[in-house]
Amino acid sequence: MATARRDPLTLEVVELIGTVVARYYEEYEQAAAQHALTGAQARVLRLLSLEPLPMRRIARNLKCEPSNVTGIVDRLEARGLVERRPDPADRRVKLAAPTEKGLATAEQLRDSLDFAREPLAGLTAAERETLRDLLQRMVGESAA
Amino acid sequence: MATARRDPLTLEVVELIGTVVARYYEEYEQAAAQHALTGAQARVLRLLSLEPLPMRRIARNLKCEPSNVTGIVDRLEARGLVERRPDPADRRVKLAAPTEKGLATAEQLRDSLDFAREPLAGLTAAERETLRDLLQRMVGESAA
DNA sequence: TATTGTTATACTCTATAACTATA
DNA sequence: TATAGTTATAGAGTATAACAATA
């Protein structure tokens, strides 16, 4: 298996992945902007819509410094999309949780992410399965 | 063909694409940082390594406002990676072009983008071909 | 008049370092 | 003493608006 690295085929696939990434990112930002959110704010809102989290955990997920999360959550909180709750188990911890409005926004956001579904519509179910399997092996099975 | 949108399979693929995008982006920034470049600077340098371009064209490619390009090119120029040249055909235009050092850096940058090659090593040539074809159809054939 | 690049301004994201309140 | 969250600071990317030079 592990041979090719700079062969034309591999480079072609790498190029295509770059194109997909650029398009995905662009449309994600655009979807966020439709709700007057930045990309980072939209990502945090999506994350919290799955489960309330301590600030520290948000930073780890976003792969940024905890100090940055303070501002992002501040802005989401100022817009009534998120709230900070105390953690009964540890008084140092603040749990960020979406409000009802925040949950509704997160759902709308999810729906507007047609970008990734739209192009898939051109593939048959069998092809989507193949794509899923190949991507899974690329990502390393342990995809979330 | 165009039926499924919210079926489990499609959503699974969308999720996987999101994972690939996050990983690609992260590793791109990391590769850029190894050369003390930001992601935006690395993207501009890569773009110019293909062909010198007017500031306006860079903005269009990055999908940002032209005023932002001024600063990014300023910083690349300050590091001796890029230079501004007059356009003989139109004296309003400034062509941004990589220096030799800039070209060398762009090439190193390209090489350090193993992130997208590494995971592909686990796929056979036939599988990479299949992946290429499916991605090409997603992207719409007209990939760069 | 329209276009190219720039400047000025304001906001967000980012990392670093220092601070506070808990543990 | 270690950890969670915050504040302060500085640099970079971003959009908007206004400007000079050129077309």
From TrEMBL, chains A, B:
<dbReference type="InterPro" id="IPR039422">
    <property type="entry name" value="MarR/SlyA-like"/>
</dbReference>
<dbReference type="Pfam" id="PF01047">
    <property type="entry name" value="MarR"/>
</dbReference>
<dbReference type="InterPro" id="IPR000835">
    <property type="entry name" value="HTH_MarR-typ"/>
</dbReference>
<dbReference type="GO" id="GO:0006950">
    <property type="term" value="P:response to stress"/>
</dbReference>
<keyword id="KW-0238">DNA-binding</keyword>
<feature type="domain" description="HTH marR-type">
    <location>
        <begin position="10"/>
        <end position="140"/>
    </location>
</feature>
<protein>
    <submittedName>
        <fullName>MarR family transcriptional regulator</fullName>
    </submittedName>
</protein>
<dbReference type="InterPro" id="IPR036390">
    <property type="entry name" value="WH_DNA-bd_sf"/>
</dbReference>
<dbReference type="GO" id="GO:0003700">
    <property type="term" value="F:DNA-binding transcription factor activity"/>
</dbReference>
<dbReference type="GO" id="GO:0003677">
    <property type="term" value="F:DNA binding"/>
</dbReference>
<keyword id="KW-0805">Transcription regulation</keyword>
<keyword id="KW-0804">Transcription</keyword>
<dbReference type="InterPro" id="IPR036388">
    <property type="entry name" value="WH-like_DNA-bd_sf"/>
</dbReference>
<dbReference type="InterPro" id="IPR023187">
    <property type="entry name" value="Tscrpt_reg_MarR-type_CS"/>
</dbReference>
